[in-house]
Design brief:
Elements: E1 2-3, E2 6-12, H1 14-31, E3 38-43, H2 47-55, E4 62-71, E5 80-83, E6 94-102, H3 106-116, E7 122-130, E8 143-147, E9 153-154, E10 170-173
Helix pairs in contact: 1-2
Bound molecules: 1-O-pyrophosphono-5-O-phosphono-alpha-D-ribofuranose (PRP).
1-O-pyrophosphono-5-O-phosphono-alpha-D-ribofuranose (PRP) binds next to strand 4, strand 6 and helix 3.
Length: 179
């Protein structure tokens, strides 16, 4: 499978993703019963994961979005994070940040810092993917679908130069076929 100049090979299938997302939704429903959690989707990549996760949660909850952009090359994070102007009102709420991937963790660290200023009741993180070998922060990550090696992945919301987000499966960069 090719996107722009790079080749990718299958990595995590749509059924595998759906199974884990459903498990995570059940776990969150148990842990947040009676807490009316606020899900905050970190745009853009997490939209696809969030739409499936949110529908697998069976307890009353609300949905918000925030934008955060980490600038770097097209396949690596830089550590410079810009948070958008729209900040949901989280005062007194149990917040669940929804991310597609935790790479360095700097995006989630920055978003958490910004939200803490409004004194939420709690903040936690639900992420589709995490690359433990790349973490530069000590985030508590109780709700991760898949820990993966530090390879570049696309699909199910994740992009390469903005393309590939619509793919139902997740693909990994095929180093052998990419110059
Ligand atoms: C990606 C991803 C996370 C962040 C992870 O966002 O969606 O938000 O990088 O990297 P980090 O843990 O090293 O901070 P990106 O800025 O590429 O925006 P996008 O979601 O619109 O693709």
């Amino acid at each position: 499978m090719q996107i722009h100049d790079k080749h990718f090979k299958p990595f995590i299938t749509a059924p595998q993703i759906q199974e884990r997302v459903s498990e995570l939704g059940k776990q969150i429903s148990q842990d947040y019963a009676g807490k009316n959690p606020m899900f905050i989707v970190i745009l853009n990549g997490a939209i696809v994961f969030a739409s499936d996760l949110f529908r697998s949660v069976s307890v009353p909850c609300t949905l918000e979005t925030m934008s955060a952009k980490s600038y770097g090359s097209q396949t690596t994070s830089s550590g410079t994070v810009t948070v958008g102007a729209h900040i949901p009102n989280v005062h007194g709420r149990h917040v669940i940040l929804v991310e597609d991937i935790v790479d360095t963790g700097l995006t989630l660290q920055r978003v958490t810092e910004v939200l803490q200023q409004q004194h939420p009741e709690s903040i936690t993180i639900a992420a589709l993917l995490s690359k433990p070998a790349m973490h530069k922060t000590k985030l508590h990550l109780p709700y991760i679908c898949f820990d993966i090696p530090p390879a570049f992945v696309v699909g199910y919301g994740l992009d390469y130069a903005e393309h590939g987000r619509n793919l139902p499966d997740i693909y990994v960069l095929d180093e052998e076929h990419t110059l």
